[in-house]
Specification:
The structure holds two protein chains of two kinds. By secondary structure, chain A is mainly beta. Helix content of chain A is about 0%, strand content about 50%. The N and C termini of chain A lie far apart (about 40 Å). By secondary structure, chain B is an all-beta fold. In chain B, about 0% of the residues lie in helices and about 50% in strands. The chains are: A mainly beta, B mainly beta.
Chain lengths: ~120, ~120
């Protein structure tokens, strides 16, 4: 079964507008971390934001915020005031604590295009 | 602080050859993980090293191997290359290994990747 689901293969947003990228996850662990990464066409994975399963407040990092809904197992990324440089592939990832699945498990990604 | 570096950035090999990729983690980071990224399979975990010990391994054949040195630098080796090994190989480092709890110190920072093409 998919542990990380990103249902939007591609998204378009107008420059300066906000956009939400969806991510749902599946785990039976109580302790886990959720991550968002950005991958431009150059290939490098750039860390954006982290949310711990026990964190009560939604994480924010500059224009990025994570809408964490634990009961729904949802960790959506919100990018405010989109810029042309935000055009990239975005990956949601999870790291569980128990068992052998301690590596990052990635979703299939969402290709975001910011339109001028 | 310098980021994760990977060498070489690009590599072209032919089937049957072997290849060694190198990764230098962020200074002070002791955990290094390797991932393979392909259009068909997405990002898949290869293995993780912490303090020179392989702590976790993904579902890849034995042709894929790795090691970590005392300075935390890591290498991965692929022997008897196949066409399907063509991929972007990403290395990531983190401050702690994955045996601890999930916290911001376990965030993995990635290098620019090595793009391997097998002809």
């Amino acid at each position: 079964a998919q542990k990380i689901t990103q249902t939007q293969p591609g998204m378009f947003v107008q420059e300066k507008e906000a956009v939400t990228l969806d991510c749902t996850y599946d785990t039976s662990d109580q302790s886990y971390g959720l991550f968002w990464y950005k991958q431009p066409s150059s290939g490098e994975m750039i860390f954006l934001i982290y949310q711990g399963s026990y964190d009560e407040q939604n994480a924010t990092e500059g224009r990025y915020s994570l809408n964490f809904q634990k009961a729904r197992k949802s960790a959506n990324l919100v990018i405010s005031a989109s810029q042309l440089g935000d055009s990239a592939m975005y990956f949601c990832a999870m790291r569980e604590r128990s068992g052998s699945a301690r590596q990052l498990t990635f979703g299939s990604g969402t290709q975001l295009t910011v339109l001028p | 602080k310098a980021g994760v570096t990977q060498t070489p950035r690009y590599l072209i090999k032919t089937r049957g050859q072997q290849v060694t990729l190198s990764c230098s983690p962020i200074s002070g980071h002791r955990s290094v993980s390797w991932y393979q990224q392909t259009p068909g399979q997405g990002l898949q975990f290869l293995f993780e090293y912490f303090s020179e010990t392989q702590r976790n391994k993904g579902n890849f054949p034995g042709r894929f191997s790795g090691r970590q040195f005392s300075n935390s630098r890591s290498e991965m080796n692929v022997s008897t290359l196949e066409l399907g090994d063509s991929a972007l190989y990403l290395c990531a480092s983190s401050l702690r290994g994955t045996s601890g709890g999930s916290s911001s110190t376990d965030t993995q920072y990635f290098g620019p990747g090595t793009r391997l093409t097998v002809l």
